[in-house]
Specification:
With 256 residues, the protein is an alpha/beta fold. The protein has one domain: NAD(P)-binding Rossmann-like Domain (Rossmann fold, 3-Layer(aba) Sandwich), CATH 3.40.50.720. Helix content is 46%, strand content 14%. Strands 3-2-1-4-5-6-7 form a 7-stranded parallel β-sheet, sandwiched between helices. β5, α5 and β6 form a beta-alpha-beta unit. The longest helix has 29 residues. The protein is globular, with a radius of gyration of 18 Å. The termini are far apart.
């Protein structure tokens, strides 16, 4: 039997990239999937087809995770469609490069709102419904190696991911007694749309690959497999941890 049969997962930012891969993998493991997107519904429909082709049920729901009302509605839609939401994957995220001394307030607000405020209040709405129903659950945040590793020019991104790490540690203690666990998955360089500029710059890509001991970028499937494990009963005793998935990059990285 698939390890997530009968459960329902909300996956934010799941119309493309890592989120899409996670949605498909959880569907293959038997979970119903709530596909969160912003903007183009046809892209979310492509993920929905992947979910249904995997033999699972799914719905799409547009929700800007930086808006509290939107994330509350996202959780409500999951419960309305499937009678519960057992797994939350906070995947939606963004980054923007700028020198620290030139970063405008608007950029700071947008990145922190999507990457940190969103997961905080979505987890809150998710937990409130589980607590009322006296049900256990799993929260899995897609963080980054930059929750721990400096990334000059991306201070806002690093700050948001560092905050996500501390949120995970704190909530592990607070939510554990409710039967709700929370963990981070921290990818390094993964081949996704957010890294398009890197993928198209061969000299820069080759220089990065030399710093990754396994000699390649990560794939969406690499990350999705780890998320599926953390959502399963096999991970019931794992709580408050970060799982770095970077091919050894953090252990071998140095600025030029």
């Amino acid at each position: 039997m698939p390890m997530l049969k009968g459960r329902t997962a909300i996956v934010t930012g799941s119309s493309q990239g890592i989120g899409q891969g996670i949605a498909e993998r959880l569907a293959r493991e038997g979970a119903n999937v709530v596909i969160d997107y912003i903007g183009a519904p046809n892209v979310a429909d492509a993920t929905l087809k992947m979910v249904t082709d995997a033999g699972a049920k799914g719905i799409t729901c547009e929700a800007d995770v930086s808006q509290v009302a939107a994330v509350r509605n996202l959780v409500n839609e999951a419960w309305k469609a499937f009678g519960s939401a057992d797994i939350l994957v906070n995947n939606a995220g963004m980054e923007h490069k700028s020198a620290f001394w030139e970063t405008p307030e608007a950029d700071y607000d947008r990145i922190l709102h999507v990457n940190l405020k969103g997961p905080f209040f979505l987890a809150q709405a998710f937990v409130q419904r589980l607590r009322e129903a006296k049900k256990p659950g799993r929260i899995i945040n897609i963080s980054s190696v930059h929750e721990d590793m400096a990334f000059p020019g991306f201070a806002t991104y690093c700050i948001s991911k560092g905050g996500l790490r501390m949120m995970t540690r704190d909530l592990a203690v607070e939510l554990g007694p409710l039967g709700i666990t929370i963990n981070n998955v921290a990818p390094g360089a993964v081949s996704t749309p957010i890294n398009t500029a890197l993928l198209e710059n061969k000299p820069k890509l080759d220089a990065l690959l030399k710093k990754i001991p396994v000699g390649r970028l990560g794939t969406v499937d690499d990350v999705a497999g780890l998320v599926a494990f953390l959502a399963s009963d096999d991970a019931a005793y794992i709580n408050g941890s970060t799982f770095v998935i970077d091919g050894g990059l953090m252990r071998n990285y140095h600025e030029q």
